[in-house]
Amino acid sequence: MADTLTPKTTFTNQGPQGAQSTLPPLPPLPETPVMPDFDETSIESVRELEGGGKEMVLNLGPQHPSTHGVLRVVLQLDGEVIKDCDLVIGYLHRGTEKLGENARYVQFTPWTDRTDYVSSPANNLGYIMAVEKLLGITDRIPERAQYFRVILAELTRIASHLVGIGTHALDIGALSMSLYTFRDREMILDLYENYAGARLTTNIMEIGGFQRPIPDTFWEQLRDFLSIMPQRINEYGKLLDANPIWLARTKGVGYISREDALSFGLTGPLLRAAGVAYDIRKAMPYLIYDRLNFEIPVGSQSDTYDRYLIRMEEMRQSLSIIEQCMEQMPSDGPLMANEPKYVFPPHDAVMFEAEAMQRHFKLVIEGFSPPPGEVYVGIEGSKGELGYYIVSDGTPHAYRLRIRPPSMINLQIVNKISIGAMIADLVAIIGTTDIVLGEVDR
After folding, report:
1. N or C: fewer beta carbons within 10 Å in the chain?
2. Can you name the residues that pair with 398 across neighbouring β-strands?
3. Sign of CA dihedral 320, 305, 431, 401
4. CB-side exposure of 331: number of CA atoms within 13 Å?
5. CA dist 286 to 127, 139, 208, 389, Å?
6. Three-state DSSP class for 56?
7. How far is the C-alpha of 82 from the C-alpha of 418, rounded, in Å?
8. In sequence order, what DSSP letters do the residues of 75-134 get, joined into one string?
9. How is residue 303 annotated by DSSP?
């Protein structure tokens, strides 16, 4: 039976060329269109300058790992020296602020997670405090809840700096640093998960305080973290503080004068590295920061290396703040304000009490209506001043909601400090601004 099968393809011997199929040949490909005045040998645009020099316009990003997201940087180069730098944003724009104007106040809290997504609890906190100020209940938040908010905010600051320092070192070539910082950040994400059930976009803050009780295992994990982390930060310093490659790539790179830092509206480590000791936690204390003893690290050289040192010291200060909060925080007492008009009833009550169930239903379906007015609340985020501006017209939706994103404000300085630098220096400059494109574009 096998002898009766006819092969579908026959081959003939072509000598040294081997076998050749007798299938019909494929049709010829159409000719590639040629664009006039286009140099097909290069994707860059080059033009001759007076004196025989050449100027090149080159795109860095938006699909480039060192831009920390979908940031497009249009560079005007003379060789590898940057003559001009144009930042193009908007590739990640989702209309977050407009979404906030079309959602009820409680519904918008998860959207704040998705702006600076490596500092989710801090974004929650700024928005929640703005809504509470609009409602006029700021002074009614339980003391225990205020301490716990500070603990979460400082854990967030450490987690954000770990990502910022690790990815910055990775951009410059220190791969091992990113592995260590992300390893230690996992301990903070474990704490988030223990309390809120989520690790990245946590939705951990609530209007009025916290409905969920704090599990005992949370405090055990936190004590372990506080015992481990100081030594880990010292290890980071041993890796980078005197590393000759790190010093060569960061010392004297990305200098920002004090005058430029102030005129550009910079905040956070970028401003403090320029010698300005401005931190909202000290300048305009909120929650219980006025009861805590901590220092504000200030630089003198205002270069990339200075900003690295400031972030390292801020992590040490945050550990001290958390320890003080654990010592001062009341061991018992409410975590949620007694404001039935604005806060959800406890979960157990909703399950077994008709009145609580009805109140929960009305808050979910209708929301609450703050009195007409406008508020602004700024907090000290890991990247600088994070602010929320809300205008209320007396309805369950904000009439206007505006976010002051430190990432976008700080990004503006990149153009000025990049001129005259090399392309390789631009990678270090973008890294030192510690931007998150979800917050830049919103």
Report:
1. N
2. 392
3. positive
4. 2
5. 14, 11, 15, 16
6. strand
7. 7
8. EEEETTEEEEEEEE--TT---HHHHHHSSBTGGGHHHHHTTSTTSHHHHHHHHHHHHHHH
9. S
Mean pLDDT calculated for residue range 39-60: 63
Q: What is 96-441's CATH number?
A: 1.10.645.10
d(CA 128, CA 126) in angstroms, rounded, equals 6
Residue for token pair 């929960």? 360
* In the chain, where the domains are located: 96-441
The pTM score is 0.85
CA-to-CA distance for 423 and 99, rounded, in angstroms? Answer: 38
Amino acid code (one letter) for 441: D
Three-state SS at 194: helix
Structure tokens at 245: 């490659």
The rounded distance, in Å, linking the Cα atoms of 118 and 438 is 10
User: Tokens at residue 80, please?
Assistant: 């590898």
User: 62-104: per-residue pLDDT in tens?
Assistant: 877 777 778 899 999 888 899 999 999 988 888 899 999 999 9
Residue 140 neighbours by CB distance under 10 Å: 13
Tens digit of each residue's pLDDT (9 = 90 or more) over 156-174? 999 999 999 999 999 888 8
Q: What is the distance between the alpha carbons of residues 409 and 27, in angstroms, rounded to a whole number? A: 57
Token pair, residue 43, equals 């994707």
Tokens of 368: 């609450």
